[in-house]
Amino acid sequence: MYKRGHFGVAMLALAPITFWLLSTGFPVFGALVAGTVLYLAMLPDVDHRVPGVPHRGPTHSLLFAAVVGAVFAGAASLVEPVLSIAVPGGVSMVAFGFLLGFGTVVAHLLGDAITPMGVNFLWPHPRTWSLSLTTADSTIWNWGLFVLGVFALAAAVALAVRGAPI
Ligand SMILES: [Zn+2]
Hints:
By secondary structure, the chain is mostly helical. The protein has one domain. Helices cover 59% and strands 0% of the residues. It has helices at 3-23, 27-39, 62-79, 93-113, 139-163. α2 crosses α4 (93-113) and α3 (62-79) packs antiparallel against α4 (93-113). The longest helix has 25 residues, at 139-163. Residues 44-45, 60, 108, 112 line the site of zinc ion (ZN).
């Protein structure tokens, strides 16, 4: 999947989360989550630039998602005492950090899983999973997912803002 398609999948995943965070009164946190997810949407594709790492190998696995989640959780535990950002009640910033990092990578993997090359979710176990819906370079799918994502995210923001108590 290309960049545009990945951003589309990321926005589709963000839509319900953004709606939830905005409608429960956490706009700053919602913006932070959306910014992070979009900024890191292409993170697993660093394997194109790291010599010796096969494309869609280790960085396209649940293990990598867990590692990124752990890094986020660690960063959140450092930031938490210094910077107070309003976070939904009951969820610690550390837990949220983990889910944010993990979810960002998983959204990318789902975007790649619809192409015939598939994703090696359980790396280093060699099996790959693929839905074979479209090739990675499909203009229709890349643009289609992007437009759907923009629409879903815009709708989530509009619904949350309109429904918010003043
Ligand atoms: Zn990829």
